[in-house]
Amino acid sequence: MVELDFQIPSAIDPFAEAKDSSGTKAKVHIRVQQRNGKKCLTTVQGLPKDFSYERILKDVKKDFCCNGNVVNDKELGKVIQLQGDQRKNVQAFLVRSNLATKDQIQIHGF
Protein backbone atom coordinates (compact mmCIF):
# COMPACT_ATOMS: atom_id res chain seq x y z
CA MET A 1 0.00 0.00 0.00
CA VAL A 2 1.04 3.56 -0.63
CA GLU A 3 1.26 5.77 2.43
CA LEU A 4 0.26 9.37 1.84
CA ASP A 5 2.05 12.10 3.72
CA PHE A 6 -0.47 14.93 4.07
CA GLN A 7 -3.04 16.10 6.59
CA ILE A 8 -6.66 16.91 5.99
CA PRO A 9 -7.43 20.45 7.18
CA SER A 10 -9.99 20.70 9.95
CA ALA A 11 -12.65 23.34 10.39
CA ILE A 12 -11.33 26.69 11.58
CA ASP A 13 -13.14 28.51 14.36
CA PRO A 14 -12.81 32.29 13.75
CA PHE A 15 -13.69 33.06 17.39
CA ALA A 16 -11.19 30.64 18.93
CA GLU A 17 -8.90 33.53 19.88
CA ALA A 18 -11.71 35.26 21.76
CA LYS A 19 -12.41 32.10 23.77
CA ASP A 20 -8.74 31.52 24.59
CA SER A 21 -7.80 33.71 27.54
CA SER A 22 -4.50 32.03 28.39
CA GLY A 23 -2.43 34.93 26.99
CA THR A 24 -0.95 37.52 29.30
CA LYS A 25 -2.38 40.41 27.30
CA ALA A 26 -6.10 40.24 26.70
CA LYS A 27 -7.27 41.06 23.18
CA VAL A 28 -9.88 43.71 22.47
CA HIS A 29 -12.16 42.53 19.67
CA ILE A 30 -13.92 45.06 17.45
CA ARG A 31 -16.57 43.55 15.18
CA VAL A 32 -19.08 44.89 12.69
CA GLN A 33 -22.43 43.21 12.07
CA GLN A 34 -24.77 43.91 9.18
CA ARG A 35 -28.27 44.83 10.32
CA ASN A 36 -30.76 45.59 7.57
CA GLY A 37 -29.95 47.35 4.34
CA LYS A 38 -26.91 49.59 4.74
CA LYS A 39 -27.16 49.73 8.53
CA CYS A 40 -24.27 48.33 10.60
CA LEU A 41 -23.61 47.70 14.27
CA THR A 42 -20.11 47.85 15.77
CA THR A 43 -19.37 45.85 18.94
CA VAL A 44 -16.36 46.19 21.24
CA GLN A 45 -15.55 43.40 23.67
CA GLY A 46 -12.57 42.39 25.75
CA LEU A 47 -11.84 45.63 27.55
CA PRO A 48 -10.62 45.14 31.14
CA LYS A 49 -13.40 44.88 33.71
CA ASP A 50 -12.03 47.70 35.87
CA PHE A 51 -12.69 50.31 33.14
CA SER A 52 -15.87 52.39 33.25
CA TYR A 53 -17.73 51.22 30.15
CA GLU A 54 -20.31 53.98 30.49
CA ARG A 55 -17.60 56.67 30.50
CA ILE A 56 -15.88 55.14 27.45
CA LEU A 57 -19.23 54.96 25.67
CA LYS A 58 -19.99 58.58 26.50
CA ASP A 59 -16.67 59.77 25.07
CA VAL A 60 -16.96 57.62 21.93
CA LYS A 61 -20.51 58.81 21.25
CA LYS A 62 -19.42 62.43 21.60
CA ASP A 63 -16.31 62.05 19.40
CA PHE A 64 -17.94 60.11 16.54
CA CYS A 65 -21.50 61.54 16.64
CA CYS A 66 -23.15 58.14 16.91
CA ASN A 67 -25.47 56.41 19.34
CA GLY A 68 -24.68 53.33 21.39
CA ASN A 69 -25.19 51.38 24.58
CA VAL A 70 -23.54 48.90 26.94
CA VAL A 71 -25.00 45.37 26.93
CA ASN A 72 -24.43 42.73 29.60
CA ASP A 73 -23.93 39.35 27.94
CA LYS A 74 -23.89 36.13 29.99
CA GLU A 75 -20.87 34.65 28.19
CA LEU A 76 -18.94 37.71 27.03
CA GLY A 77 -19.53 40.13 29.91
CA LYS A 78 -20.03 43.79 29.06
CA VAL A 79 -20.07 44.66 25.36
CA ILE A 80 -20.19 48.16 23.89
CA GLN A 81 -22.49 48.52 20.86
CA LEU A 82 -22.27 51.49 18.49
CA GLN A 83 -24.30 52.58 15.49
CA GLY A 84 -22.57 52.41 12.15
CA ASP A 85 -19.22 51.03 11.04
CA GLN A 86 -16.92 52.58 13.65
CA ARG A 87 -14.11 49.99 13.60
CA LYS A 88 -11.24 52.29 12.60
CA ASN A 89 -12.54 55.15 14.75
CA VAL A 90 -12.79 52.98 17.87
CA GLN A 91 -9.32 51.55 17.28
CA ALA A 92 -7.84 55.05 16.98
CA PHE A 93 -9.76 56.18 20.10
CA LEU A 94 -8.53 53.25 22.23
CA VAL A 95 -4.90 53.79 21.18
CA ARG A 96 -5.10 57.57 21.61
CA SER A 97 -6.67 57.21 25.09
CA ASN A 98 -4.08 54.58 26.17
CA LEU A 99 -6.84 52.07 26.91
CA ALA A 100 -5.23 49.46 24.65
CA THR A 101 -2.20 49.15 22.42
CA LYS A 102 -2.45 48.57 18.69
CA ASP A 103 -1.14 45.01 19.20
CA GLN A 104 -3.96 44.21 21.63
CA ILE A 105 -6.73 45.28 19.24
CA GLN A 106 -8.11 42.84 16.72
CA ILE A 107 -10.60 44.00 14.08
CA HIS A 108 -13.11 41.55 12.61
CA GLY A 109 -15.68 42.02 9.87
CA PHE A 110 -16.24 42.20 6.17
UniProtKB/TrEMBL annotation:
<dbReference type="InterPro" id="IPR036877">
    <property type="entry name" value="SUI1_dom_sf"/>
</dbReference>
<dbReference type="InterPro" id="IPR005874">
    <property type="entry name" value="SUI1_euk"/>
</dbReference>
<dbReference type="Pfam" id="PF01253">
    <property type="entry name" value="SUI1"/>
</dbReference>
<dbReference type="GO" id="GO:0006417">
    <property type="term" value="P:regulation of translation"/>
</dbReference>
<feature type="domain" description="SUI1">
    <location>
        <begin position="28"/>
        <end position="98"/>
    </location>
</feature>
<keyword id="KW-0810">Translation regulation</keyword>
<keyword id="KW-0648">Protein biosynthesis</keyword>
<protein>
    <recommendedName>
        <fullName>SUI1 domain-containing protein</fullName>
    </recommendedName>
</protein>
<dbReference type="InterPro" id="IPR001950">
    <property type="entry name" value="SUI1"/>
</dbReference>
<dbReference type="GO" id="GO:0003729">
    <property type="term" value="F:mRNA binding"/>
</dbReference>
<dbReference type="GO" id="GO:0003743">
    <property type="term" value="F:translation initiation factor activity"/>
</dbReference>
<comment type="similarity">
    <text>Belongs to the SUI1 family.</text>
</comment>
<comment type="function">
    <text>Probably involved in translation.</text>
</comment>
